[in-house]
Amino acid sequence: MRSLRGITVKSRVGFLTPVANLIGAVRGPKYDGSFLHDKIKSLTHDVTIADTVTNIVVPAFDVKYLQPIIFSTYEAKNEPLKNAHLSDICISTSAAPTYFPAHFFKTTSPSGESREFHLIDGGVAANNPTMVAMSMISKEVLRENQDFKLGKPADYRHYLVISIGTGTAKMAEKYTAPACAKWGVLRWLYDSGFTPLIDIFSHASADMVDIHASDDLLVGHTSSVDIATEENMEALIGIGKDLLKKPVARVNIDTGVHEPVDGEGTNEEALARFAKKLSEERRLRRNNLNSS
Fold first, then answer.
1. Distances 148 to 26, 140, 145, 239 between C-alpha atoms, Å
2. Which of 1, 79, 132, 288 is deepest in the core (most CB within 10 A)?
3. pTM value surpassing 0.85
4. CA 87 to CA 38: how far, in whole Å?
5. Which residues, other chains included, contact 74 with Cβ-Cβ below 8 Å and sequence gap of 6+?
6. What is the DSSP string of 147-162?
7. H helical segments located in the chain
8. Domain residue extents for the chain
9. Sign of the Cα pseudo-torsion (54, 80, 77, 206, in order)
């Protein structure tokens, strides 16, 4: 009798958990964001993006106009209505749908003009922001910004893009056409603890510009975006250390699988080479500045 009760209870829990998650997702965001918002504001104060020490680019997405919104230090210096507070930008770009609420704010120019923003996480449009950074560089070259003086014709071989992370969630081969063919709206939105439609959109936007190496070691809690326990943080550190020891890999654009590259060494060795290039470039720029 006890074993039967145990089976019955387990069955109900297994059924109710995804249903509860789905109901929660339908009712509203998982978190109200108040603690995150307060922390961001306490760290950034009244600093605007035009005042950042280094030049940054941050993507967001405007749900009112269904348009990507890109904030950058360079653009803010030329367009006052894009010179938003860092707090508003950070809150917006972290407003992942179903996790945090969308963020609304206004900017005002010195002449008195104003602009509204209705923003969510930029990852819905630029899950891999590589293309955003490349577009920003191209725009500044056209503006003849001296920081991006490439000569004529422009030579982009001097630029190197590197994306660093601890890996991605193991999603490959999770869904199949025969299974998806039977799904209705609810299954596309939520299936066995995952969100197929969101996964597909986010992976599609990232893979279109995916030129960096990543790994699929993240499973369970380590693949979650909102489990910040000490145990999970330690697990992520361990995964990062293991990833450093792995050989350099590049994505096969036909399969999406990362394959080792002969002669490139480990990720740790590749990062060391990259750090050396950065150091040499910094030294060269300092010498040029002192001699001018």
1. 46, 7, 6, 36
2. 132
3. no
4. 9
5. 55, 136, 139, 140, 145
6. GG---SS--GGG----
7. 2-27, 34-44, 73-78, 86-93, 130-142, 177-180, 185-189, 196-207, 230-244, 267-291
8. 28-130, 162-275
9. positive
